[in-house]
């Protein structure tokens, strides 16, 4: 009997099968993942979670009998009152017995996706616009890579082929007697010794051979098979790896005119953007700036969950943002993303100020600016009529920016968030062709 | 290093490798020394819960080819496990030589003892001695074969593309249960014997030759005779559909035939397990119960450990009544163990009734010997048919319920009384007969020289047809493999009428 401890064997034996399954069911899993957005709160957005898909695409059919019709019998335990010949009403409207087992099986298949799988599917085929500003910046990661061989090192990095090659060439160069040489001598000696009466010639030859053998043996001992000088170790070198880093500014109007619903829409958009950025950059910093008629930099919790009242001065937030940039994020080193959410209300005299800040100071340094105008849920947007655009919207429309750098969208309902987000970040195959 | 024979094997619930060895030796002493079990050499492997989940998903085998359906099982099992809806099995055992048992690191010391008695001795003995396993499986070769299969399929994926291989395996999996030889085949005659036979026939024909026969009118009979001959040349009818496709499919490439063969052979390997599930579990349960009780009696297990064992043992053999809400069919552990315990009782303390029903074993006083004989020579169906005793039927209060399509109500056909015993026993045995429980589907005809349409027949039993949507999907797979039209007729064996017909055309003009 053997006992083998397999606990330290590498796990994830079924990973390949799992991936194959997800690939096969990709379409339906993706749909389920996106639908699940509706039911998840922002904090849970990137957790692993349960997914339900229809069984159809991943069903494995077999020949088996139906659960309905025909004549059957069942043998069951636990009879309490029945006598032979008793009748029992057919349960379940005549579709087989209650005891027939599971029948044709459920139509749904439920399972749990890990966080990575979830995000991969969720953000599949989206890309960040313009990743030009990849720079070597303060946060550099040390990467390790192979760099030749060295004569010192840890036993685990011993390179056996290299070592053996060196040993072989040293043995050849120093003429270490080989096993074959020794065998030949031994055979010769043995042959001579077996001839019982030795002639004088043979006797001296035998003597000579013994001496020769002793000499070779000594030589073999002096010249080792493998000598410490043969040892070669794989050498590793650390190299700095550039890390693309990004900072994301979330600007939000928290003045009285913003309802809870609007804030929720904005939150969702920010959450999506954050998720997306964390997929693209190793380092993503997030700066939350909320504003009424003056702007503060706050932490995430305050940003999303505290209440504030006051007037509205959009330019205050833009000013604040520029101050933070000047203070901490040099535009040469950082990819800057700006997402602004507002209901579009602004004090009339502030609009020109805000637009000019946006045009002259922010768009030139930012990778990407998104302005999201959130509306009331009940705003019907009837077809054919154009509701009057807000002042801020009208102002921002005049901002001139390279294509795709500055975008504006209106959102009224939670379900529109994801489509809008997708639209903004869709992988643009057309552009690739144009290049 | 066995401790003294009256020492406690362990105290507390922690275990280490020395303890496992001690426990193994003690269990072996009872199993081999007293019960005289005959086992393959054992290999016990300790694994984690995650590894157990992985092992589940590839039908318990340590190595298996890759396919998405196993990934689906992992996900489903993981979900159930993580939500606490299902506990993992404590053990998993593989019918191979040496016999590999996986035990989980989370198990307590008592559970490890139980698992060793159950798997490494109970199942192991059953695998080695039962005639179905002896006849159909090669315990020595299975791991090597799986290794070959895994490598071969991987190479095919590299050469022919993952998608093509996946499609093929999908189709083969759908037909897996129709890929089994249910009885050993007659060996094909060799050419020499065939030629001698042909010459003998020829000589007979010449001897009885009479020109008058030529004048007889020839009719439809001739055509049917030709069809008869054609069928015979293809060994039709053939119930092993995968075998038929592998040997005869006109459009399959050699690598596709080899993969069909691999899947067919693996299905064949698992066939004995499906035929003996209840007995196998019953035997293992009986062994562990016997061994654990003996160890406790000798003072080698603490009372606490024995209580823990009993707790888990009674859970395993719990059989809810049909109306309890927990009922989901007969529990194979419970039924197998129940019948075996009953046999042991009949051997040692028979009643008058037992002497009438089981004269050959009643009062022999050697339950170990009788059970070993039964384990070696029966499968689930014959085991129930032979050994389900009136005593057990009464104890379980088994009854038989008839569900006839023509009547609006279910009828209680037999209960635990003199008139009912044989009826119940017969019906229950039928439920364990795989040949009866699975639809009888055969390839009946194909005209390879003509339109090559493959014709299959399902001989409908008791008027229960095939589940339609699934049947159509499987048929589609089959058409893709065959490369031409496929037609499945569901036939009522009594009247010969066709009750339903399924057809499928191949998707792609050529599967290769």
From TrEMBL, chain A:
<comment type="similarity">
    <text>Belongs to the UPF0229 family.</text>
</comment>
<dbReference type="InterPro" id="IPR036465">
    <property type="entry name" value="vWFA_dom_sf"/>
</dbReference>
<dbReference type="Pfam" id="PF04285">
    <property type="entry name" value="DUF444"/>
</dbReference>
<dbReference type="InterPro" id="IPR006698">
    <property type="entry name" value="UPF0229"/>
</dbReference>
<protein>
    <recommendedName>
        <fullName>UPF0229 protein CLG96_11625</fullName>
    </recommendedName>
</protein>
Automatic annotation (TrEMBL), chain B:
<dbReference type="Pfam" id="PF24755">
    <property type="entry name" value="SpoVR_C"/>
</dbReference>
<dbReference type="InterPro" id="IPR057270">
    <property type="entry name" value="Ycgb-like"/>
</dbReference>
<feature type="domain" description="SpoVR-like C-terminal">
    <location>
        <begin position="439"/>
        <end position="492"/>
    </location>
</feature>
<dbReference type="InterPro" id="IPR057008">
    <property type="entry name" value="SpoVR-like_C"/>
</dbReference>
<dbReference type="InterPro" id="IPR007390">
    <property type="entry name" value="Spore_V_R"/>
</dbReference>
<dbReference type="InterPro" id="IPR056174">
    <property type="entry name" value="SpoVR_N"/>
</dbReference>
<feature type="domain" description="SpoVR protein-like N-terminal">
    <location>
        <begin position="15"/>
        <end position="435"/>
    </location>
</feature>
<dbReference type="Pfam" id="PF04293">
    <property type="entry name" value="SpoVR"/>
</dbReference>
<protein>
    <submittedName>
        <fullName>SpoVR family protein</fullName>
    </submittedName>
</protein>
